[in-house]
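Why does residue order matter? Because the sequence determines the fold. Keep that principle in mind as you read this record.
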Amino acid sequence: MIKDSKGAVQNAANTLQWNMIKALESGLEEPLTVLNAPYIGSYPQRYRKLFIPGGRFSHTPGAEDESIRFCNLAYWKYYSIYFHLKPALKRWAEKGKIHDKAVVAYALTGNNLKLFRFLKRHFPEIRTVLAVPDLPEFMNLGQENKGSLFHLLKHFDVKFIYRNLKYTDKFILLTDEMNERIQAAENDYVVMEGIAPEPFEDNTKKFADKTMLYTGGLAETYGVVELCEAFHRTADPGYRLILCGSGQAEEKVKHYAKMDRRISYLGLIERLEARKLQRQASVLVNPRRDEGAFTAYSFPSKILEYMSSGTPVMMRKLKGIPAEYMNYCYPIGSDGIEGFSAAIDSVLSKSQDELTAFGAAAQQFVTREKSAQRQGEKLLRLLED
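Structure:
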């Protein structure tokens, strides 16, 4: 799917979904059934294929999973996905004991709520659970240049979503602030900002130069251009900045890479390669600014991946990030470009022993508190309540 995609792929969403499956299965005797509709760009602008094939698969021994086929034509794809998911979900619902079943759907989308409405009308005993990584009004940020049809459809979709939340029994929210809009009862939701992947252990050695790494989307709203400028203003020739990913700020990142030989842009890379780079780097950075209402309703998933690497993390305190995380991160502060540049210099000038110890403490924190087993216990309590 990566080779057929035009632009960024949803690595973070895919990772979180598989981590949630692993977390839930850590406390179950049998594997979950996965019903999959690949989250890819639309044909022809963002994907090279019009028709997406389906098929049966097993994500683990004994699992009976299905990936549905659909037409990937822009706009029409959402109807096609729904029309193919609905009979697949019906087949699953009619199989076995209904009262023991629960459906966990990923993302607050109109299609998922249409499916929940269908379930509640025909199989009311089945519990419906919605994982909410983003609120619908804050999805597709950075696409303001889309046409009027896109914005009109989005407006009606958001209204439909909030009007049909009543078909959801339980919610998994990334931040406490999300419930200001979801308005679920106290026992009907849990806050789970993410699930830490297992530590990536290998014999990879650190880069010889003090290296700062960013892996993720290249959008100006994520602060990547500000990161490049702040790093460019540091003076030490032994520092290095590596950026990986794709997005609308890609050309500006390339400009800085041409202007400053210490800055490298590697483009879109595989997740395994990204995790190896995270081990090799001296510091990992999340430059997102605490600007815009969406930051209160968002937890950057890369934070847990960063921390699990054992390499120290540098970031700003965003509204959606619990305060406990900042005990294990180097703060960027809010003093503009000069302050950001000074913070980079302060962190990269630390000894490698000090950086290693700080990164190890963060790794221990997320392994202890945010592991699949720990978060799985929280999710299963929600389902059983």
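The longest strand covers residues 127-132.
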